Amino acid sequence: MTGIDNDMIIAPSPAQQMRRRALRHWGFLIGGSLLGLIVLLALIAPLIAPHDPYVQDLSQRFLRPVFMGGTWEYPLGTDHLGRDYLSRLLYGARISLTIGLVTAIISGLIGTTLGVAAGYFGGRVDTIVMFIITVRLSMPVVLVALAVVALFGGSLTVVVLVLGFLLWDQFAVVMRTSTQQIRSQDYLISAQALGCSTTRIVMTEIMPNVLNNLIVIITLEMAHAIILEAALSFLGLGVQPPLPSWGLMIAEGKDMLFFEPFLITIPGIALFALIFSINMLGDGVRDVTAPENRN
Amino acid sequence: MPRFLLKRLGLAALVAFTVSLISFSLLFLAGDPAVALAGEAATEEDIQAIRAQYGFDRPIAIQYMAWLSGAVVGDFGESYYFKTPVMELIASRLPTTMQLGLAGICFALLLAVPLGVAAAIRPNSLIDRFALFVSVVGQAMPTFWFSLILIVIFAVNLGFVPVSGTDTWRHFILPTIVLGYFATPGIMRLTRAGMLEVLRADYIRTARAKGLHPVKVLFKHALRNAAIPVVGLAAVQLGFMLGGSIVVESIFALNGAGLLAFESINRNDFPVVQALILIFSIIYVLLTLLADLLNAWLDPRIRVA
Amino acid sequence: MEPLLSVENLRVEIPIGAGLLKPVRDISFDLKKGETLCIVGESGCGKSLTSLALMGLLPRAARRSGDRLRFAGRDLLGLKERQMARLRGQSMSMIFQEPMTSLNPSYAIGNQLTEGMIRHQGVSRAEARDRAILLLEKVGITAAASRLAQFPHQLSGGLRQRVMIAMSLMCDPELIIADEPTTALDVTIQAKILGMMKELQAEFGMAMIFITHDLGVVARIADKIAVMYAGTFVETGTAHQIFDAPTHPYTKGLLSCIPVPGKTKRGSRLGAVPGVVPSLVGGVRGCGFASRCPVRQAACGKEPALTDRGAGHACRCVMDSDALRNMVWEAA
Lengths: 295, 305, 332
Hints:
The complex is a heterotrimer of chains A (295), B (305) and C (332). In chain A, helix 5 runs parallel beside helix 8 (156-166). Chain A has 13 helices and no strands. By secondary structure, chain A is an all-alpha fold. Chain A has one domain (17-293): Orthogonal Bundle (MetI-like fold). Chain B folds into 2 domains: 2-61; 98-269 and 277-303, MetI-like fold (Orthogonal Bundle), CATH 1.10.3720. In chain B, 79% of the residues lie in helices and 0% in strands. Chain B has helices at residues 2-29, 33-38, 44-54, 60-71, 86-121, 126-140, 143-157, 173-199, 202-209, 214-252, 257-266, 270-298, 300-303. In chain B, helix 5 (86-121) packs across helix 8 (173-199). The radius of gyration of chain B is 24 Å and the shape is globular. With 332 residues, chain C is an alpha/beta fold. In chain C, helix 3 crosses helix 4 (125-138), helix 3 (109-121) packs parallel to helix 6 (157-169) and helix 4 (125-138) packs across helix 6 (157-169). The chains are: A mainly alpha (295), B mainly alpha (305), C alpha/beta (332).
């Protein structure tokens, strides 16, 4: 109980604490490893896929997966055109991940720019940005996305662009609030007093401090985009055949729903696992970086 | 209060106007509606005739003004496909969607609020873990896939409910569950977080110090305060659900505005799509206004200034 | 006659990880009807937890135990939460430190004032309302009837604390525990509220446990004083004993911090107690005050017992009474 004891205790650095929390957070660990596995499988799909995902063999239609009495030739069976389901599933992961990533980049750029501008400048800029956000929120996403895809024709590019231009609202809302909070901090006021330029302040003072929130929103919106793409493709107004989008695979299997449910179960589980892993990772990042915000 | 209301209604009108402008220009940016309308086998003369008939040869601004002057009095023109007024068409389908949305939000609240409260009372307990499971699964489950799974299990294998259609209340059961479950995770998380915070509040300790019954402490003193943000979220979620009913209605062939929207998009029936986008936007803005009013009514700090 | 409240070796323990936090250790005292006990100590010494333990309002993680906790002829340690709830607000009530957050923002104060009485005494809403108006007037709130419809956010901190005091009196309790009720208020309002509480106590005849860190407050209202340090009482006695003949070095240190008119010489420096309350993690070995004590000695490594130094004046120190009496506070 002497004063010296306290000084001798070496507190772990924030980075060490964060690493320690991450390694104890099961959601972070499970989400991270599952997502890592899916990304890995998508990257090495050409190496491990047993068949070409596009080659049809009408003599081999609706073969069942190996665990339902099928053969190892087609481990997850075949679809209505005799295409290998496992190969399509692996290549489908590439589509979902691409959609999620590119959409998050586009919407992240739009939303962060709007949000940071609104939070930093306030006043009239804020009013205008808030109005744009309200307009965007009021537009029914699925309906508008379907209509636009129908007009421009379904393709990966169109879907990514449409979703990118629709899903920036959360970025804007969260970045605006975070920037507002930082805006009133003393270190920002002192940076201004030192005569730093706005660009410099935004890049060196604001961005590093909103990064945690940004990562969380990126994961949220990736998951959102992947689900929406699947839904659009399922409704026939997204990625077009013969691309192996998981939503499209479910749509194609829907007609055989009552006879061969595995056709919708397998891509559905894949979709679920991907969204689940991204959400877990996002929640984990939030808990690990800002444990005080945990509910 | 009247000034606040007037301001919000003005904002709603401005939002609706902007949305209509965006959707109108989008539809025209995408290409020539006359070509789309005429179909693939049409000749150049056919297309010219359609252009003249629908007034597509006029400048966009003029067309928009014409459309807008009708829209403000509820005249959205005529459906290309049905050849009937768009407003009548929508009016006949919207109630189904409204019923579905209201049933869905009720389902969500009945599931999410008790679960969120129970989870907050005993953090890290079995019920808290169950609530977390329900919310995590709900967030990761694509609605369209969930719909198909429910159809396979409850309509086909067990035969409890009809597969699709709009005829009886039983047709609404599965769509309600799907749509309601979609809104559950958000409401549950907010309820849980709100209750956790409120239960730590000093006034809860005061209520306990008064010797009130624990149930009364929980529901009168805690839930009342935790519920304020939940009500707002529920109203907003209802707006998202109405807009998102398009997927569920298509799968269950529920004859509402969502299905109408889907069919109209596939038929290039632009006036209907245009009107539906606008109407869903207005409903959303009105719901957020309703949420604000409910908040003000529930929270004396806003109500009694 | 049996005292109203009799406490022997009250303890509060909080398990943390593998260890055990002991924020309140071996608290003992008796309180008679109509008496006022002041518990004095620095923030973090365990005063608030002591009061919550008496009310049975400890946070869920904390555990209460003790050798005796008798109140008005009942053994509180053996009571179930349901039975305890019957006593709370009825025969013992509490006033909290934070008037700004201690009232529910969603309900009018009339509602919050009356609900306890309606539950405990089964009276009608109108009867409870009449009582509330009467008490609001007693605590000096004008236009009491019209205040009942007001919400907490419409009242100032001082008014809210008056409402809290009225609320604690609704069922005419035998004991009121006040946990720093004036700390959050302006000094002028503090004085008024203190005076008012003294008058009310005289009028209603209830006993009071008053928790504070402010010796000025103690001097005005205490019959008995318990000086608390690092989770336990280091000195107990009547107000006269403590103020006129403080024995424990900590008490002496505390008293040296306040100027006394006629006693403190003009131009002399006021005292101070340097250092901080030791952390409770890992428990306290020996006398908790040793690290800050100017007269510490080898024997301080073992925690001394609270021993009677005559006429009920007790002190927890290894030194004998004569040595303590002659000790003069000089900061270590």
